[in-house]
């Protein structure tokens, strides 16, 4: 556990260091007439200091008890399910402009319901159909917000 | 004062005409619906519906747009409680206890207290506006950049103390949020920063994408990251008798509502993201004075009642600087300013004399609008709470789809959706590692204003940092900041000393 926390501290320290490095490429100016890089520079330094404080604090902490093997092995399939869910959503964003909103939303709902274990054919088809049609009517027809039309041109 | 009350009565006469009541109702309903949809908050709602008001007279148009504003604020609280998706920044704090209440099957009381608290705060705020607006607006005028900066620093420290997690972790998130907030155009010199030659980043990081990502998507992912059996088990089905608050709930909330209204009204007059600061300040006060501070974060009704009342009161009093000074201090009031100007009404010191019908009519309509929202929302609580009856296996894909769609509708940008998904992944990891997302989000909003205040202060003082300590109001905020910072350190030292003494006693 402590190893993970050290990694967190180091990552945040590096974020601060990166901000400092990028800020130094901008005009810093003086405190009287600050340049665009001064504020981010101060923030980068502040983040580095806080990360160091966080890491130093870890040194004084007692080691946490290791997680029980039961807890560590809990739900190995859930992480994969989450990754699939997230991946399907990202894929839908990729396809949005090509397939258009109604088709993409239908396919996305179908995929997400499938990933979450819904197998009843009626539910698996009717719910995505209703959602796609409903959201299309709400956003495009009622609120007049243009959504990607894609190949089907809706 | 008597004159103000007479004018207010005239305002009620204007706002209570059938036509204006209808537009107020339409605005409140549309606002509530818009606020409930993740991604569409009051800003998007008002912006989207401005064209609808083009054919109306200025008073009816502004009454309708104001209805959308507070309707959307209420709708935002509904999604915060039911789905842990804040419709706008001011609802972030409602998520903490509101969502916990919903998880325990108490979504109904949380929603009802929101409506009752908002109405009570609105009523008190109205009298506050009439009685105290002129002197308080004068006092708010005395705020210069050093005071703004110190206030915002104080706000961050208060905020970092709010959720009771690690202070260092919260501060790191706040600083990270401030860094993200520097992306885009430098607010003073107009130079581009951290844009990496991409056009998308020129206008900065889209706040809505970060908000939906860190809260909505992260919540969905955290829920999906459970075994399928657990997804079925965790469906909450509130019983009918649990849909409304009990007498005990009301007794527990009344103090929080009154204090929230007072805090919100005062903070609303101060330039800045008033509803946000007001909700956090109210939450902090409630937690500090509570006999059971450990219940906060676990579903304490005071943690919903206080901030929601503060939010409503701050929204109302934020109209004072808009109407009297013509300066909007928050994005929704900035859009309302645009709408006022479209309708030929120029806010400023002359507005009361030149457009008394608009000024007093709108103020009176706020009260009527709050009453309409109360009437509208209390009977619909079973309907809103029934959203929770939908199995999570169905609800989670629906929320994901509406987050994606809602995000796209803000700017019609696919890049915004990518940013939202990225932030969703980050929010999920932060959740796993016990990092609080609220300080990051708030810092992102306040960051640019804070930077401007910081740089203007130093320009005014010729680079002398003493400017933050020489001015009494600024010094007060900084002393409060040190107090808030010092308290956890003091408690930590006491604990250490106590532990040390026990160890010595044990070994001796």
Structure write-up:
Chain A is mainly alpha-helical and 154 residues long. Chain A has helices at residues 2-23, 38-60, 69-72, 76-99, 101-115, 121-142. Chain A folds into 2 domains: 2-60; 76-142, no CATH class. In chain A, helix 1 packs antiparallel against helix 2 (38-60), helix 4 (76-99) packs antiparallel against helix 5 (101-115) and helix 5 runs antiparallel to helix 6. Chain A has 6 helices and no strands. The longest helix of chain A has 24 residues, at 76-99. Chain B contains 22 helices and 2 strands. In chain B, strand 1 (184-185) and strand 2 (192-193) form a beta hairpin. Chain B is 75% helix and 1% strand. With 508 residues, chain B is mainly alpha-helical. Chain B has helices at residues 2-15, 18-36, 42-49, 58-83, 92-103, 107-141, 145-162, 167-181, 207-224, 228-233, 247-268, 274-289, 302-317, 319-325, 331-342, 351-354, 356-385, 392-411, 414-432, 438-460, 467-470, 472-507; strands spanning 184-185, 192-193. Chain B has a two-stranded antiparallel ribbon with strand order 1-2. At the A-B interface, helix 1, helix 2, helix 4, helix 5 and helix 6 of A face helix 8, helix 9, helix 10, helix 18 and helix 19 of B.
Secondary structure tally, helices of chain A? 6
Provide the low-confidence segments of chain A as ranges: 70-74
Strand content of chain B: under 5%
Count of beta strands of chain B = 2
In DSSP terms (H or I, runs of 4 or more residues), the helix count of chain B works out at 22
Give the amount of beta strand of chain A, in percent. Answer: under 5%
Helix content of chain B: over 70%
User: Could you state the oligomeric state of the chains shown?
Assistant: heterodimer
Order of helices and strands of chain B: HHHHHHHHEEHHHHHHHHHHHHHH
Which chain pair has the greatest contact? Answer: A-B, 63 and 56 residues
Q: Residue ranges of chain B: pLDDT <50 for 5 or more in a row?
A: none
Supply the number of structural domains of chain B: 1
How many distinct domains of chain A? 2
What is the spatial order of strands in the main beta sheet of chain B? 1-2
Described by the principal axes of the CA atoms, the overall outline of chain A is elongated
Structural class of chain A: mainly alpha
- Cα separation of the termini of chain A: 51 Å
Cα-based radius of gyration of chain A, to the nearest Å: 25 Å
Round the Cα radius of gyration of chain B to an integer and report it. 23 Å
The end-to-end distance of chain B, rounded to whole angstroms, is 72 Å
